[in-house]
Amino acid sequence: MGLAALLGGERDLLGPTADRPPPTETVPIEFLRPSPLQPRRIFDEEDLEALARSLREKGVLQPLLVRPAPAGAPGYEIVAGERRWRAAQRAGLHELPVVVRELDDRAVLELALVENLQRADLGPLEEARAYRRLIDEFGHDQEAISELVGKSRSHVANTLRLLALPEPVAALLEAGRITAGHARALLAADDPAALAAEVVRRDLSVRETEALVRSRARPHTEPRGGRRRDPNLVAFEERISARLGLPVAIQPSAKGGRVSIRYSSLDQLEALLRRLVPD
Questions:
Q1: What pairing do the DSSP bridges indicate for beta strands 25-28 and 95-100?
Q2: Distance between CA 13 and CA 17 in Å, rounded?
Q3: Distance, CA of 77 to CA of 69 (rounded, Å)
Q4: Average pLDDT of the segment spanning 112-129
Q5: 18 CB neighbour count, 10 Å cutoff
Q6: Is the CATH code 3.90.1530.10 the one for domain 2-122?
Q7: At 17, is the pLDDT very low, low, confident or very high (cuts 50, 70, 90)?
Q8: Mean pLDDT throughout 17-39?
Q9: 9 three-class SS
Q10: What pLDDT sits at residue 228?
Q11: Are 188 and 220 within 8 A, CB to CB?
Q12: 171-207 burial string, b = 16+ CB within 10 Å, else e?
């Protein structure tokens, strides 16, 4: 599916096709500008330099997807391909091939999110936030997202869980001090921030982090009568948590029960309220 599905069933407009190549035109590079709706904010310098070298040697093999600049401004706004545009400037190219489409802001944002996700162009938290936007703003469920970006549903669900990280742990993940595997292990900790600092200090692997979380877990009281938790309730917790991107606990009682949702920042709380009480 991917970008072709979002563009009305056409085959991938960002790459050549055997039976129907996309209509392209060549425009001066100064006629192009990045979109303010682009979800990616950080571009790796080494990656851009490597791509610039490739463009000098082989040229631009895939056209950029653009739309006419809004509000009658001259030139075009880049919908997909900003990374290639940045690298082309470094490579000293003067013109770029483009595919021009008339797209509204909603379509631009959706396409930009999916293109970045398909190209593994985002960090773990950027990826998680992109999935959340596809759910909140475009109504996609996890199955639809997995088809759009070519990744498993479990990968999408596990990535969304990263949005429940407390701020200090999220900062370490964004800085590359820990991996997404470390972060997911720390989600099960009673004090993720404290353990994250220890993981960084001791340079622990993901497996070592998982063992550390287990060893530091506070004993939880067994339900009355010593019975194990209902596996159906555990499954419900996991499903709701994956949907909301926040830790969820279900506590049954004789006359019903209680559902608890844990958040670690006001931003997470505001995002939860938008999902539960839409405008």
A1: antiparallel
A2: 8
A3: 5
A4: 79
A5: 6
A6: yes
A7: very low
A8: 78
A9: coil
A10: 62
A11: no
A12: ebbeeeebebebbbbbbebeebbebbeebeeeebebe
Q: What is the distance between the alpha carbons of residues 170 and 192, in angstroms, rounded to a whole number?
A: 10
Query: Which carries the bigger pLDDT value, residue 279 or residue 25?
Result: 25
Domain boundaries, the chain: 2-122, 165-216, 224-276
Residue type, 14: L
Which among 10, 25, 30, 82 is annotated as catalytic? Answer: 82
Q: What are the helix (H) ranges across the chain? A: 2-6, 45-58, 82-91, 105-118, 124-138, 142-149, 153-160, 167-174, 180-186, 192-202, 206-216, 231-244, 266-276
Q: How confident is the model at residue 208, as a pLDDT?
A: 94
Mean per-residue pLDDT over the chain, rounded: 81
Query: Is-contact 249 242, C-beta < 8 A?
Result: no
User: How do residues 181-194 score in pLDDT, each as one tens digit?
Assistant: 999 999 888 889 99
pLDDT band (50, 70, 90) for residue 78: very high
Tell me if residue 82 is catalytic.
yes
CA–CA dist 70, 260 (Å, integer):
45
Q: Report DSSP letters for 181-241, one per residue.
A: HHHHHHTTSSSHHHHHHHHHHHT--HHHHHHHHHHHPPPPPPPGGGPPPPHHHHHHHHHHH
Measured CA angle at 64 (ends 134, 8), to 5 deg: 50
37, two tokens: 């709706």
Which pTM was predicted?
0.61
Do residues 169 and 196 make contact, with C-beta atoms less than 8 angstroms apart? yes
**Does 227 have pLDDT greater than 70?**
no
The confidence score (pLDDT) of residue 36 equals 81
Q: Which two tokens stand for residue 176?
A: 């590359």
How many Cα atoms are found within 13 Å in the side-chain-facing hemisphere of 116?
Answer: 28
